[in-house]
Design a protein that fits this description.
four-stranded parallel β-sheet; 18% strand; five-stranded parallel β-sheet; alpha/beta; binds D-glutamic acid
């Protein structure tokens, strides 16, 4: 019932999932992608779990009703934490892939180390995160670092603004010199890697799960015999009526190399 020409639908609360879309496109350039950024409702990270669930279901419904979709990528840690189970139940035949903070990668790289996870309040308070922490716990010490306000500034295109630097300093200064790795547990944050790295210094490695999500999507499509071999295309949609948001999304999609990209 699905065909290889069908779309890979990707959504996030706004711009963040573009960092995952970049990894998907790099790994599978022949695919047709439709990306929905829900900027009108961003940020998801300070909402209630029920709100994030309802918004995620609405985003999935929009994408699957408007496009022939063969896979749904939840390119948002917050939406994955709150809604991946209900999305899988709602679309039992569809390939549904989420993103989680890259804690396993951090545990594997720094056994027994000191690890920070920078993420939204929702991601860090959901049971899924504690389960993830305990699943891989290699006697590491994990610091949860909620980062309210950071995604909002990225949505406003203020990645390098004085407000961003001040907010990051306020959040991260207590951890400078203390962490072996800092997991960027929100898909917006790869766009501000340079600023985070300059505060944390070279001894803290920054990690992100975008590549793992892209690999898992390819694995699932390959297994189902649904990998495409066409020319590939990308359609970007945004819930905000402000045309600036589509411009920003395109700029982030085609902009300079991110430090997580080879
Ligand atoms: N990009 C989203 C994530 O990965 C969250 C940003 C927001 O708070 O909306 O968690």
């Amino acid at each position: 019932m699905y065909t290889k020409n069908d779309y890979i639908a990707v959504f996030d609360s706004g711009m963040g999932g573009i960092s995952v879309l970049r990894q998907l496109k790099k790994l599978m350039p022949c695919e047709n992608y439709v990306y929905f950024g829900d900027s009108a409702n961003a940020p998801y990270g300070s909402r209630t779990t029920e709100e994030v669930r309802a918004l995620s279901l609405a985003a999935a419904e929009k994408l699957t009703s408007e496009f022939p979709v063969k896979a749904l990528v939840v390119a948002c840690n917050t939406a994955t934490a709150a809604a991946i189970d209900v999305l899988r139940k709602t679309y039992p035949d569809l390939i549904v892939v989420g993103i989680e903070p890259a804690l396993k990668l951090a545990y594997d790289s720094f056994p027994g180390g000191n690890l920070g996870v920078l993420a939204t309040e929702v991601t860090l308070r959901e049971e899924k995160f504690d389960a993830l922490m305990h699943r891989f716990d290699g006697n590491c010490t994990v610091y949860k670092i909620p980062a309210p306000g950071v995604a909002n500034l990225i949505e406003a295109g203020k990645n390098d603004s004085p407000e961003m630097i001040a907010l990051l300093r306020q959040l991260l200064t207590p951890y400078v010199g203390k962490l072996d790795a800092l997991v960027l547990g929100c898909t917006h944050y790869p766009f501000i890697t340079r600023n985070i790295a300059s505060i944390m210094g070279p001894k803290t490695q920054l990690l992100h799960g975008g590549k793992g999500t892209a690999r898992e999507t390819r694995r699932r499509l390959e297994k189902a015999g649904l990998l495409n071999d066409g020319d590939g295309s990308i359609t970007i949609l945004n819930s905000s009526p402000d045309p600036k948001m589509l411009k920003l999304a395109n700029a982030l999609l085609t902009g300079g190399k991110l430090s997580f990209e080879d």
